[in-house]
Amino acid sequence: MSGAILAATDLSRRFGKIVALDGLSLSMGAGELFGLVGPDGAGKTTALRLLAGQLRPDAGSVRVMARDPVREGDAVRAELGYVPQQFSLYGDLSVQENLDFFGAMFGLNGAEVEARSEELLALTRLKPFRSRRADALSGGMYKKLSVACSLLHRPRVLLLDEPTNGVDPISRRELWQLLQRFAAQGMAVLLSTPYMDEAARCHRVGLLHRGRLVRCGPPGELRHSVGHGCYWLEDLPRQIAEEVLAQTAVLTRVPQGKRYRLLVRRDGEEALAQRVSQAGGRLTPTQPGFEDLFLLFTSEGGDGA
Amino acid sequence: MGTGLSGLMAVMRKELRQTFRDRRMVAILIMAPLIQTVVLGYAVDLDVDAVPTVVCDRDQSPASRALVQEYLAGGTFRLVGRAAEPADAERWLDRGDAAVALILERGLGERLRAGQAASVQVFIDGSDSNRALVAMSASTQFFVGRAARLSQERLSWLERLQGRSLAVPRLTLEPRIMYNPRLSSPRYMVPGVAAFLLLLVTTLLTAMGIARERELGTLEQILVTPLSPMALLTGKCLPFAFLGLIDVAGLVAIGALLFDVPMRGPLWLVFAGTLVYLLTTLGIGILISTVSRTQQQAMLGALFFMLPALLLSGFATPIGNMPGWLQPITYLNPMRYFVEFMRGCLIRGSGLAELWPKLLVLLVFGLSVLGLGALRFRKRLA
Ligand SMILES: Nc1ncnc2c1ncn2[C@@H]1O[C@H](COP(=O)(O)OP(=O)(O)OP(=O)(O)O)[C@@H](O)[C@H]1O
Ligand SMILES: [Mg+2]
User: Which residue of B lies nearest to A52 if distances are taken between CA atoms?
Assistant: First the structure.
């Protein structure tokens, strides 16, 4: 893609014997909100650190606005904001002091730092807390400050590693609104998350599993690409349900209260329906969601067939 | 968009702000001057005189009493008690109530008067080697002198008896300790304390300061800014170098005002030497930080280096007194050269002409360690 602001091709990285990332390719344009979704250890952090030039790839390449973040670090850093997964601000400095410090790190002069931090504090609604120590902020406020600190230099690309982890639902929604606003203003925003439900809010989603990008596309398309039947199994005592399910080729099953959520291969649907009705249960078709899609990959060792 | 000087200044500002906000760091910074005064004050006590002495005079003759009196008169020994039996005297030493026991056997006066050989026993508590050494040499000097005087008296008596002069050659030893005539320790200690303080505020604090950035994840955030790793390193080191210089200035002032350190050498040379030594201490701090993931590890690593460096610097124990196999190792200890440099400069008043070899060694050490540290720091980030 020629207009790509951020592009990765065949990006791989291993740590000793562990292949943390295996051939990741993706490309993002301006104004796009991309979600990299994957469970713990899928390689999300590795991917983001590679994209930010914080790690060298073993193979493949990264381009941020057509530049290599490893070889042209300074040029890339000027265009890139990165919010790490872990705490990364100075807990013993105040909100304002953190902003001042990182502003100076990005080479802004005093007036610029003041104007931009004012703007960002207003945007993140952190103004009342500007003299509070960063380690005394709540999880959500801390993340917002982290975002603010990485936007001081007005980057065109923003990378966020699990920004909503450890953040209460209200702050989480606020954070999402901010990210959507940034994207609407033309920024390319890429974030990672372990939460499937958040994927729906992105323009595009990449499913990362064991270092591989197993699916990538708009959330709606991905959901429809499941290609298997999705059902609720109800009205059966657990023991009988287990017996019935054991006899048929269900791809995934998740007990939820008294029900089961199932993903069934198309050619096995009829047999299952028969068995369920014989046992006196009820099978209701439903729309497949991200969880189902994801379970499909994780339960089958990632082949996703 | 490079952030050179302004970024460096911002790092320094932040570093100072954080250092003074962190109780642990402040504790170390406050401890430093405290250590210097306490150690120096303690060193005054090390001035060996009035060694507690117990006397066991089993002779109780006029001669033995005169001997005891003269022995104590010099001021090196202070009578703390008398014992009836040598075993009692030993118990005084065991309890630590006395450090020296003087034992005069029965019949001492008699034998001396009869012109026979007699011996005197002195027990010395060797647990404080410095004090033991002084007690031993004072005792030796005293009794050798007494022995000479006794022979002289005997000779004069013979001369008078025979009516002619008997010339006997005599050799006297007059040791004089130069540069530190009172063997007073503060002047001897100031250089060592300075070397140690600098290790504390530069090596320890730098190692911990860098490890903290790593441990708390702030390094990751800094590394996505255009600040160069070298500016970061410099910005983190300079405040501590500055605090170290202030500490040395304070130490030299306290030494000169309170403890009579002579301050013979040029002051600029003291600070030039300190600056050169700082290259090493900072470099080691950086090196330690590159093998530490947490502040705790950095602190342990720094102590791990500081203690042997201190012990092998000749700071308290003269290097000549160390076991033979250990002595060559001290040549690898940069602190040794700094201690020698400071002694030369402050106490002997040597100038650049005499001290440049030590400065050169320190410079070579400093540049290599600092270079290696910076290299490893950069590599570890990649
Ligand atoms: N610096 C490293 N050294 C060794 N192994 C590493 C390193 N970084 C990551 N790994 C390994 O690589 C794999 C992917 O890790 P990564 O941190 O990228 O996953 P993640 O998706 O971010 O997980 P999480 O949700 O836990 O943050 C894991 O198995 C991890 O143990
Ligand atoms: Mg991670």
Answer: B224
